[in-house]
Design goal:
By secondary structure, the chain is an alpha/beta fold. The protein has helices spanning 2-12, 51-110, 116-127, 132-143, 154-168, 195-209, 224-237, 247-256, 275-288, 303-314, 336-341, 364-371, 377-387; strands at residues 17-28, 32-43, 183-188, 214-218, 241-243, 262-266, 292-298, 320-324, 346-350, 359-361. The protein has an eight-stranded mixed beta sheet with strand order 5-4-6-3-7-8-9-10, sandwiched between helices. The protein has a two-stranded antiparallel ribbon with strand order 1-2.
C-alpha cells in the first residue's frame, strides 16, 4: 500500500485524492494463486471532502435537532405554560381551601368540642369575613347564653349573634342642625375613601330636602380634580364654596360663612403614617373649630388597616365613623373590630356613587344584620331608610 501511494503522488501530484483501495490476487494459469497486489484508484481532478469534515458535518446534523428543540419549545411555551399554570393554580386553590377547612375544624373542635350547629355557626361567621378569633369569641358567648340553650336553627343562632354585635356597636345618629346656629362638620380620612362624594350627598340632602342653608369649604388643594368635582356639585346644588390653603384662611372663611346653618369641610386624603400631613390637618381642624369630625373609612380595607387608621385620626379629633363602599365589599366582618375597638360611634353608611342617594344613617341593628348578611340588598336599603330620618 505504501508503495502504491508513493506511485500515486509521483504520477498525479501531492493533491491527488484516493478514491478506492483494494487487495487483489492474480491466479497463475487461472488456477494457482498468484502474487498479492494492491489496487489503488486515485484522481487529481475530483474534489473529495476530508473524512474529518464529513464526520464533523454528521455530528452537526446529529446535534442540530438537539439545539433546535429548545427553539421550537420556546415558540409554544406561553400557551403550554399558561395552561399548566392554570391547572396548578386550580389545584393549589383546592388544596388551600381543604387545608383552611381542616384548620377551622381542628380549631373549633379543640376549643370547646362544639356541637354541629355551633360549628356551622362558626364557619358562617368566617364566611362573612369575621376573623377566626372574633368568630370563636362570638360562638362561645352564644354557647354561654342561657337563652340560646337548645337552639339548633341556624337563623335563630345568627340572630343571637346579631344581638351580641348590636350591643357592641355605637351609633351617633345623623348630623343635627339647629336653626340659627352654624354647625361645622369636617370629613377626614385616607385618600380614595370617598370623602368628596360623601360631602356632596350630605350637602344635597340637607339643601334640597331639608331646605337648610349649606356651604362648602375644601382644603384639598393637592388634587385639582377634587376641587373641580366639589365645585361642580356646588354649582348644581347652588351652594357657596370656598377653597382654603392655609389655617389662617380657614378661620377667616368660617367667619364669613357663619350665617349658614351647616358648613361641610372637605379635607385632603392623609396617610395615617404621614406625620407631617397629619399635623397639618390638625392645624386646619383647630382653626375651623369643627363641631363634628367624621372619619371616612372604606369598608373594603383590611381590618388591621381600619384599626390603625382609626387610632391615628382619633388622636387629632375624629368624633365618629362614616363607612363607604358597602356595595364593593364582599363581606363586612372586617369592619367589626374597628367598630368595637375605636370607641367612635358610626354615623353614616354609603353604598354607591349616586348623589344625593346611596347614603343612609347608620344604626346598630341594621349594621349587625348587614355584617351577618341576614338581609338582601333591597331589604337593607329599606331598613336603613326607615330606621330614622336622614337629618336631625
Amino acid at each position: 500500500m505504501h508503495e502504491a501511494l508513493v506511485l500515486v503522488r509521483e504520477e498525479l501530484g501531492p493533491d491527488a485524492a484516493v478514491l478506492h483501495t483494494r487487495e487483489v490476487r492474480n491466479r497463475w494459469l487461472g488456477v494457482l494463486p498468484g502474487r498479492r497486489q494492491v489496487e489503488v484508484t486515485a484522481s487529481c481532478g475530483v474534489n473529495v471532502p476530508s473524512r474529518f469534515a464529513k464526520r464533523a458535518s454528521a455530528e452537526q446534523v446529529v446535534e442540530r435537532p438537539v439545539e433546535a428543540t429548545p427553539v421550537s419549545r420556546t415558540q409554544t411555551r406561553p400557551a403550554d405554560e399558561a395552561k399548566v399554570s392554570r391547572q396548578v393554580q386550580s389545584q393549589l386553590s383546592s388544596l388551600q381551601a381543604m387545608v383552611q377547612d381542616l384548620c377551622r375544624r381542628s380549631k373549633a373542635e379543640s376549643n370547646g368540642d362544639w356541637p354541629e350547629e355551633l360549628f356551622r355557626l362558626f364557619t358562617d361567621l368566617l364566611d362573612v369575613e369575621i376573623s377566626e378569633d372574633l368568630a370563636r369569641e362570638l360562638v362561645e358567648r352564644v354557647r354561654s347564653d342561657p337563652r340560646a340553650v337548645g337552639l339548633t336553627d341556624p337563623v335563630m343562632l345568627k340572630s343571637r349573634v346579631a344581638g351580641l354585635i348590636e350591643n357592641d356597636i355605637r351609633a351617633s345618629g345623623p348630623i343635627r342642625v339647629t336653626p340659627g346656629r352654624c354647625r361645622l362638620v369636617a370629613l377626614v380620612g385616607p385618600t380614595g375613601v370617598g370623602k368628596t362624594t360623601s360631602i356632596a350627598k350630605l350637602a344635597a340632602n340637607f339643601r334640597l330636602k331639608e331646605k337648610r342653608r349649606v356651604g362648602l369649604i375644601t382644603v384639598d388643594t393637592y388634587r385639582i380634580a377634587a376641587i373641580e368635582q366639589l365645585r361642580t356639585y356646588a354649582d348644581i346644588i347652588d351652594l357657596p364654596m370656598h377653597v382654603v390653603s392655609t389655617p389662617r384662611e380657614m378661620r377667616e372663611t368660617v367667619e364669613r360663612m357663619s350665617h349658614l346653618d351647616l358648613i361641610l369641610l372637605d379635607t385632603a386624603g392623609r396617610s395615617p403614617k404621614d406625620e407631617v400631613r397629619i399635623q397639618e390637618l390638625r392645624a386646619f381642624l383647630g382653626e375651623a373649630a369643627a363641631d363634628e369630625v367624621h372619619l371616612v373609612l372604606s369598608s373594603v380595607a383590611a381590618s388591621r388597616t381600619l384599626e390603625q387608621t382609626a387610632e391615628r385620626f382619633t388622636a387629632i379629633g375624629a368624633t365618629s365613623l362614616l363607612l363607604t363602599k358597602l356595595d364593593e365589599a364582599s363581606g363586612l366582618g372586617n369592619v367589626l373590630p374597628v367598630l368595637r375597638s375605636s370607641g367612635l360611634p358610626l354615623s353614616y353608611l354609603t353604598d354607591g356613587q349616586n348623589v344625593p342617594d346611596d347614603i343612609a344613617v347608620a344604626d346598630a341593628h341594621s349594621v349587625a344584620r348587614l355584617i351577618l348578611q341576614l338581609d338582601t340588598a333591597r331589604e337593607q336599603r329599606t331598613t336603613f331608610s326607615c330606621q330614622q330620618p336622614m337629618y336631625g
